Amino acid sequence: MSDSPVQTNIDFSKPGTQWGTLDIPFSYNLSGWAKLKIPISTISNGEGPTVLLMAGNHGDEYPGQIAIMKLMKSLEQEQVTGRIIFIPAINMPAAKAATRLSPLDGKNLNRCFPGDIDGTATDLMAHYLSNEIFPIADAVIDLHTGGRGVYFYPCAHMHLVDDLEYRRRMAKAAQAYNTDFTFLYADVAGKGLLPVEVESKGKTIVTTEMGGGEVTTAAVHRTSQDGLKNVLIHLKVIEGEEKSRVDLGLPPTRWVQALDAEDYIFAPESGLFESFVDVGAEVSKDQPLGALYFLERPDRESTIIHANNDGIAIAHRGPTLTSQGDILFCLAHNVEAEVLRTFE
Ligand code: CA
After folding, report:
1. Residue extents of the structural domains in the chain
2. CATH assignment, 7-257
3. What pTM was computed for the model?
4. Ligand 1 mean position to 208 CA, how many Å?
């Protein structure tokens, strides 16, 4: 145990169902000794794995928050073998404000790991997870979307870890989400990511990109919720029969990756963005993918955005209003057969 100032009324060693909060000390102008309360619950039943189930790491990513809230209420204790820890909205201030970053301190929780015991509320959250929760978990499921900024083809994703046994375990768990694409991603946006911290402890980590922008379709909710249950069955923490895509009458998942800097296309200038392609579409090198238009200069030619390479448009920008440097497209490519063999 660390000497974290974060407190909880949950006793993680206790069997049964508990509802509680993580209480993170912070202060603001109307309260010097406030507690930021993060709802958390556990269902514990007999011997089995411990799975941490969380969403709202980026506050404006809601399908996972809904999936967890539904699941935590619908599961009976007898359906669980082992323990599930539910945190539907870990970055509660951001979830309430529909923001990616915490409005308390402006920080991105997913760049704050392993956390800082002397830091702000977001640093304390990361520190508590790293030191108190990840160590007792066998697997962590952190449900994301592309946030308001990016619309993803709904998919599960993972890092390509080096250790082959570990990689296989992660690939099987990610694949249990049964999404059309399963995505290998690179850390293009810096350090301090939650999955890296979980991987440093050798635990299975399953993450998703369930759409994004500000619309969540019924189909995306279904994919989020059905896949999550199947992953929990795969991890043997809830009862049920694991379903493969073949069982569901679907073709195998398509493993894709975007590991090179040129797979990420950024806005060369500000404007209104139109995508010419839907996510999931195959595109070819130099194909026009979209355009930027200029409100103040409708006479100007639009700036056409071209594909750097052949690939699949796995994600495009969410909002129309675009600033120079915003991500416009992520192009993914088929994972090589020799890498796929390491997943078997
Ligand atoms: Ca995210």
Report:
1. 7-257, 261-341
2. 3.40.630.10
3. 0.96
4. 8
